[in-house]
TrEMBL record:
BP term (GO), one: methylation
Coiled-coil stretches: none
Domain called Methyltransferase: residue spans: 57-151
GO molecular-function term, one example from the UniProt record: methyltransferase activity
Record's protein name: Class I SAM-dependent methyltransferase
Pfam families: Methyltransf_25
Organism: Nocardia xishanensis
Signal peptide: none
Keywords carried by this UniProt record: Methyltransferase, Transferase
The keyword Translocase is annotated on this UniProt entry: no
E.C. number: 2.1.1.-
Length: 219
């Protein structure tokens, strides 16, 4: 049994994605797994998202709100909405969020309830590999739909270790979705969804990020 089975236990999650349902356990796992660098990585992701003062930001698959809160600090007078299919993980997000410009709602990446062009920035971290492949494409179309023209996208994804031993350990611990994460498909999927100005990079220890924008006039 992988660690995943200890964290996911919702028999009716409302999505074919793999939900996190034990928020406190997930945060302990995240702290250990990132070797104390989780805060630094998420602050950097918030910067890379291009979010700025006054922006309206959507964090999809927000889990316990770790990135959501960092985004809230960056947008200051703006607002951040975190969505996740797991009502249980959102309970923890709400309980650990002091930022008043941050709210949470149940939602799924493949069918967002937000209206068209309603966000300046859409972000997600460690979420896409929780979706079956066919839902990843739908999720990216939804991200494009809810972004305003010129709005910005940030994806942070798990970057598996390059060596076999490390990868076997990841697979034993968390399962194949992380160990076999097809990062090479990320940028083509983002381009296919209609995004332009695509950039990417790595953050130590585990993250590949992709940034892009929705074609349009307003930057
Ligand atoms: C590994 S956690 C990442 C949480 C948070 N973004 C972070 O970086 O700590 C993946 C999250 O994706 C959520 N998830 C699963 N299926 C989803 C879906 N269809 N739409 C949106 N989020 C989903 C899970 O419930 C979980 O909270």
């Amino acid at each position: 049994m992988g660690l995943g089975h200890l964290l996911h236990n919702n028999p009716d999650p409302g999505t074919d994605g793999l939900t996190i349902d034990h928020g406190a356990g997930y945060d302990v796992f995240g702290a250990v797994f990132f070797g104390g660098r989780r805060g630094r990585v998420c602050r950097r992701l918030a910067e890379l998202s291009g979010a700025r003062d006054g922006d309206h930001v959507l964090d999809i698959g927000c889990g316990t709100g770790y990135l959501t809160r960092r985004l809230a600090a960056v947008v200051d007078t703006g607002t951040v909405v975190g969505v996740d299919p797991s009502a249980k993980v959102l309970e923890r997000a709400r309980a650990t969020t002091k930022e008043t410009n941050c709210t949470y709602a149940v939602g799924v990446a493949e069918s967002l309830s937000a209206t068209d062009e309603s966000f300046d920035v859409v972000a997600n971290c460690l979420m896409l590999h929780h979706l079956p492949e066919e839902l990843r494409t739908r999720a990216l179309s939804e991200m494009w739909r809810v972004l305003r023209p010129g709005g910005r996208l940030l994806i942070g994804e798990f970057r598996p270790p390059a060596n076999h031993l490390g990868n076997h350990l990841i697979e034993a611990l968390t399962g194949p979705a992380m160990a076999d994460n097809p990062l090479h498909l990320l940028e083509p999927m983002v381009a296919d969804a209609g995004f332009v100005g695509i950039g990417s990079g790595d953050l130590h220890p585990w993250i590949r990020y992709v940034t892009a924008s929705k074609s349009g006039v307003v930057a």
